[in-house]
Amino acid sequence: MALRVLLSTTLLSSLLSLVLFSAVAAVISGRRGRRTAVGFFHPYTNDGGGGERVLWCFVRAMQEENPDLDRAVFTVDDASPQSLAARALDRFGVKLLRPPQLGYGFSRVLQHSSMYNNDAPIAIRFLHSLRECTLPVILHPFRDLVQLLCGAVSGLHSMIDEHFGISVVEYMASAVIPIAHNSAGPKMDIALNEGGRKTGFLASNKEEYTEAILKVITMAEAERLAIAAVVRKCTQRFSEQKFFKDFKAAVQPILAPKSSS
C-alpha cells in the first residue's frame, strides 16, 4: 500500500513537473517567437512643440531602419494617425513613410496653457515694446516658416531653461542670428563661439534683449553676413542627416536579431 502511494505520488509529481516544464517552455517559445516592437512615450503629439519634431524624426528613422518593425506612439491627444502624419509634414517638414500606430496610456494632468508658459513673461513685454520690428509667428506651416526665415535677420527665443532649443537651431540653419535666453540648451549647447566668432546673442532680461536686438539690426552688413555664415555652418552638427545616423547607430544593437544559443 505504501509502495502504491509512493508510486502514485511520484507519478503525480512527475506529471506536475512535466506540465510546469511544458508551460515554461511554451512561454519561452512564445517570447522567442514574439515580434519586436518599439513604443514612443510622448504624451503631447499635436501641440506644435519642438519635442514633437524630435519625436517624428525618431519615428521616421525607425521606419527607415526597420520597415517591418511594430512601433506605437503613446499619447493623450485625440488625433488620428493620418492627421498626425499630415501635421508632422505640415508643421515640421518631416515626412513619415506611413502614419504612426497609436497607443493611449496617459492622463492629461497639466493644462495645455502651462506647457510653454515660461515663454510668456519676457515675450509679452518684448512684443509690446518692440512690435514695430518683430514678427511673432505662432504655429505656422513649415513651408511658411522657411519663407519667413529666408527674409529674417534675427530670431528671438525667450524661453527660460529650454531643454534644447530646436527653434534656435532652425534660426541658425537659415543663417538667422539668434537672440536666446542665457540658460540651459541655447547657452550650453547651441549659441557657442565657433572659431572665435559669435553664433548668436544670449540675454536674461528685457534690457539685455533690447541691447542684443539693437546690436544686430544696427551692425554693419559685412559683419552681420560674416556671423550669419558661421551660424549656418555650425548647425551641421544638429542636422537631420546626422541625427538619423547617430540615432540608428544607437538603436541598432538593441534591435539586431539575437543569435540563438
UniProtKB/TrEMBL annotation:
Single Gene Ontology MF annotation: GDP-Man:Man(3)GlcNAc(2)-PP-Dol alpha-1,2-mannosyltransferase activity
EC nos: 2.4.1.131
Pathway: Protein modification; protein glycosylation
Domain of life per record: Eukaryota
Pfam families: ALG11_N, Glycos_transf_1
Signal peptide: 1-26
An example Gene Ontology CC term for this record: endoplasmic reticulum membrane
Catalyzed chemical reaction(s): an alpha-D-Man-(1->3)-[alpha-D-Man-(1->6)]-beta-D-Man-(1->4)-beta-D-GlcNAc-(1->4)-alpha-D-GlcNAc-diphospho-di-trans,poly-cis-dolichol + 2 GDP-alpha-D-mannose = an alpha-D-Man-(1->2)-alpha-D-Man-(1->2)-alpha-D-Man-(1->3)-[alpha-D-Man-(1->6)]-beta-D-Man-(1->4)-beta-D-GlcNAc-(1->4)-alpha-D-GlcNAc-diphospho-di-trans,poly-cis-dolichol + 2 GDP + 2 H(+)
Cellular compartments annotated: Endoplasmic reticulum membrane
Location of the Glycosyl transferase family domain: 156-222
GO BP terms in the entry: protein N-linked glycosylation
Keywords of this entry: Endoplasmic reticulum, Glycosyltransferase, Membrane, Signal, Transferase, Transmembrane, Transmembrane helix
ALG11 mannosyltransferase N-terminal domain segment(s): 36-98
Membrane topology qualifier: Single-pass membrane protein
PANTHER family given in the database record: GDP-MAN:MAN(3)GLCNAC(2)-PP-DOL ALPHA-1,2-MANNOSYLTRANSFERASE
The protein, known as: GDP-Man:Man(3)GlcNAc(2)-PP-Dol alpha-1,2-mannosyltransferase
